[in-house]
Amino acid sequence: METILQLKNISQQFGERKILNHIEFDINKGEIFGLLGPSGAGKTTLVKMMTGTLVPTAGEVFMNGEKLPSLQQMSQYGFMAQSDALYQELTASENLDFFGSLYKMSKTYRKQRIQEVMEMVDLSEHLHQTVETYSGGMKRRLSLAAALIHEPELIILDEPTVGIDPVLRQSIWEELKRLKDRGVTIVVTTHVMDEAEKCDRLALLREGEVIALDTPEQLKETVGVSSIEDVFLHYGGGVR
Ligand SMILES: Nc1ncnc2c1ncn2[C@@H]1O[C@H](COP(=O)(O)OP(=O)(O)OP(=O)(O)O)[C@@H](O)[C@H]1O
């Protein structure tokens, strides 16, 4: 199996405080990889290192065999942060056009992709509306569209469905599955159990350590329980 991301013995500390300890795993091309853990476990810190925006105190991250941070590799992924980085006073179309220009996409290609990604997230009818008139859920979906504008081979989503109702959450997951079917690799952080179940593989993170990593089915089978929540409890930690 081909790997897209390799985390080699990653540790991170801020001052004296150790946030992540000796994290080591690979992410395969075309999989949906979940990072599940309670608030403060280090999920956001870890995904920042996967994108090269934060350099680990120790260890190395490689994307497509190239050590991060790398400008070349940084144009290959899309990142959706926890809070939406959208310009409120601009329309959805203007926002996406701006993000597209950051990736140096041509005007014609931007125009085409804006139509495509807005369709994907079911916002085509609201293309020319300013973002300030959007609901919270619409903003999240527009952020997802922005992360996808340049057709990245890897997308990293930090709690993409926080504050989103179950129906929309479902539609975002359907979109993620469609992307996966097209060969896109997806890394997603969550603390929602039913989302964790939808991942191909899952790393359980607690206090800066990976306490287990496998497919959801295998994690449950190994421990002999029927839910991921119980797997977490088995390893000595709740999820909230
Ligand atoms: N720049 C920083 N300086 C100092 N401490 C930090 C910094 N960034 C994160 N931390 C600490 O690192 C720990 C892990 O934070 P992180 O945001 O990675 O957790 P998380 O699992 O993503 O949590 P959440 O689900 O709440 O976002 C927290 O205790 C946080 O306070």
UniProtKB/TrEMBL annotation:
Domain ABC transporter residues, every copy: 5-232
GO molecular function, one term: ATP hydrolysis activity
Amino-acid biosynthesis among keywords: no
Entries under PROSITE patterns matching the protein: ABC_TRANSPORTER_1, ABC_TRANSPORTER_2
SUPFAM superfamilies in the cross-refs: P-loop containing nucleoside triphosphate hydrolases
Keywords, comma-separated and alphabetical: ATP-binding, Nucleotide-binding
Protein name: ABC transporter ATP-binding protein
Organism, scientific name: Halobacillus salinus
